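Possible regression after last week's pipeline update?

I re-ran a chain I had predicted before the update to compare outputs. Posting the input and the new output here so someone can diff against the archived version. Not blocking, just want to make sure nothing changed silently.
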Amino acid sequence: MPSSRALATELGISRGVVTAAYEQLVAEGYLQTRQGAPVRVAEGVRAHAPRPAAPPLIERFAYDLTPGLPDLLGFPRDRWLRSVRSAWREAPLDAVGYGDPRGEPSLREALADHLRRARGAAADAEHLVVCTGFRQGLSLTCRWLRAAGIERVALEEPGWHAQRLIVEEAGLMVAPIAVDGEGISVDELDASGAEVVVVTPAHQFPTGTVLSAGRRARLIEWAERGDRLIVEDDYDAELCRGQVGALQGLAPDRVLYIGSASKRLTPGMRLGWMQPPSWMSWALISAKAIEDAGSEVSGQLALADFIARGEFERHLRRMRGRYARRREALVRSLAAHHPEWSPRPDADGMFVLVDLPAALDEATLLTASARRGVGLEGVSLHSYTGAAAAGLVIGCGSLSEPAIDRALALLGAALPLEIRGEVGRIDARAIGGSR
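New output (post-update):
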């Protein structure tokens, strides 16, 4: 290193400033000094090689057709910024302190009003709890269930794989319950011995089935007869044209309702809400308070204003129409590029379940599509028993209609004849290209 005098002259500053800086770097272990010798960089610093950038945990695709990803470009940034500014202008001075672990009162009131009007829920702001999304809501619930002596939780088969991971992480056993054209099998549920079930009644994932009126009545009777609990995952109901009311509105003492902003607005917002039965609300409020003392305030205040000004419902209406058009475009593109694939007749929401020909290997198809920059998700990911037939859950939320068609055309044109079902099973070594 240059001497303190030389560096001070070069920089045009006082020598005392350079000396003080050198002394600080010596104290922190970056430099070494010795009487009569020049200042040197410490051996440990010189030996430390620069670390490469950490690889991303989530794979990115040029064409992302994975389900559950909404239209990120459709997020109304200008309207949201208006709500952020308005909320902070009107927020009380203590809004940035430790608040109610249930969430900001203004947001709980706005959410309760929205859920009553839009979802037919028996919503009560006093018992409503703001969380960071469905995952945290179910995680808090499962840990409380485990502490209460519950051992088994029933899940839909097939059903969203994250539910299974959360249940098992809490130390609970999974009881897979079959789903048919009317929804979850209540007979199988009754025989499972489970005291808790997680369902997606408004739009089952991944089959797209809507729980029939008869099954709804039987499911509620199952819960009431055995003093059991239903966890309702209401992840995208307002984005479906054929909306049905929340199950919680029919049995508020037996249903724990969980929703989130992930599909309705954007996943990165990390805001969700739980409407538990009154008898278990204090347990979940306590668990939330212990875990993180409450969700972040800025997003809560902005969302409360966004809902109060009617922007939330206007956004949902816009996106509902947009997703319907994209879903129709996806079905047309499938017919044009992959006529041997069979989309299920469900005509709603942000994804399509597609049955594959028996000769087509799902895992090989997923690998090949990823190499071509097309992100797809297989049904097997969401099957606990592994008995689900080969298929794809194709999302249509994040891409425009032309991009959806290009993705499916790219996949069809790039892959060899075998993988398109025209011959037998594919030899994975024949697939060229790179990620």
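Follow-up from reviewer: compared with the archived run. The two ends are 45 Å apart (CA to CA). Marking as no regression found.
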